[in-house]
Amino acid sequence: MNEPYTLAEDRAPRTRAEAVAFVRELTVRPDYFGTGYRKRDPFESDPAEWAVLGEDCLWRREALPDTVLSSLTRMYELPAKGGKGPVYVSLTVTVHQDVVAARRDMAGSLEEALRCPEQQLNATDRVRGLYSRVDAFAEGRSVISDDDLTESGNWVADGAKAHPFDWYKFRMGPVTVAATARHGSGRTEAEDSTVTTAMAKGMTFVAASIDSRGKAGDADATAEPTETKGAGQ
């Protein structure tokens, strides 16, 4: 059996400056998520902040806790075309202080859908009917990462019709990678399935890059994978 992608704790960034450099230098191309994707504006978040789900089930950006060294979100979109609404994808790479902190973050993420099955993303967008589960990639999970989660539901913007919402998250040693997809209107179930599968496959490209950097033991190493273990699972 193939070994999972991971990042040994002794190869991970140890300071906030190293962690910021690590997340910024990771290559995450728009076409990782499918043909036609492009960067959104704004494209990147502040790596000194991360998203926190409050007790009121509203997402807010807050300063990083002591257990997190950096967290960078990059945002992409598949523009509206041919009567189909845009698809919005975000990908977040977070470097935790150690494996224990990363595991606690994964456990907290699993509990969030139970605590808040309906969540307010911003002033206009909310997601509802959320359901979380482990083993997002079924039998292929062990060749993707150390741990993974998946969450699905629907998102609504400005009170319009609901559309599918996907969220995946996995852990590689002390690093977590999370991605969301907000599907646009006018797509068939098969097309929505393609959006979901393509996002998951794009995440494996990022996993491969992190794994490669860890094996190289060089924070400046890069990886441009053409094939990934478990891709398409």
Task: Describe the structure using short key phrases.
233 residues, alpha+beta, two-stranded antiparallel ribbon, 10 strands, globular
Model description:
With 233 residues, the chain is an alpha+beta fold. It has 3 helices and 10 strands, in the order αβββββαβββββα. The chain has helices at residues 16-25, 99-115, 189-216; strands at residues 38-44, 49-53, 59-63, 68-78, 87-96, 119-120, 125-134, 147-157, 163-172, 175-182.
Put the structure in a nutshell.
By secondary structure, the protein is α+β, with helices and mostly antiparallel strands. It is built from three helices and ten strands.
Q: Biggest sheet: strands side by side, in what order?
A: 1-4-5-10-9-8-7-6
User: How many individual helices?
Assistant: 3
Helical content stands at 10-25%
Radius of gyration (Å): 17 Å
Helix and strand run: HEEEEEHEEEEEH
What would you call the shape?
globular
- DSSP summary, beta strand count: 10
Proportion of strand residues: 25-35%
Gap between N and C termini: 15 Å
Q: What is the mean pLDDT?
A: 88
Give the oligomer, counting copies of the same chain as homo and different chains as hetero: single chain
| Main sheet makeup | 8 strands, antiparallel
Unreliable segments (pLDDT under 50, ≥5 consecutive)? 136-142, 218-223, 226-233
Structural category is: alpha+beta
Topology readout:
Elements: H1 16-25, E1 38-44, E2 49-53, E3 59-63, E4 68-78, E5 87-96, H2 99-115, E6 119-120, E7 125-134, E8 147-157, E9 163-172, E10 175-182, H3 189-216
Antiparallel strand pairs: 1-4, 2-3, 4-5, 5-10, 6-7, 7-8, 8-9, 9-10
